[in-house]
Amino acid sequence: MSQRNQVYLILLHIGLGILIAKLPFFSKFYAILIFFVGLFIVLKNKNRNNEILYVIAYVAGSEVLLRTRLKFENGSLKIDLRGRIK
What we know:
Layout: H1 3-22, H2 26-45, H3 51-67, H4 75-83
Helix pairs in contact: 2-3, 3-4
């Protein structure tokens, strides 16, 4: 990944954090989006390069942000489901 793409990803996540802070209902949409995009990435690549590890790490990291907005533990369920995908 180029340095330019890394900067774009950082800016995207800063924007997501601001959006979730301003619009609390967006956190539910974001949690669902993480689940389906992660599932798509793992299934599309058939987990050849252990993409599941990246998805699990992203879910675990995003759970810190989402836990402040959502009243239930969504990351634990996602990690359990993703850990069983082969």
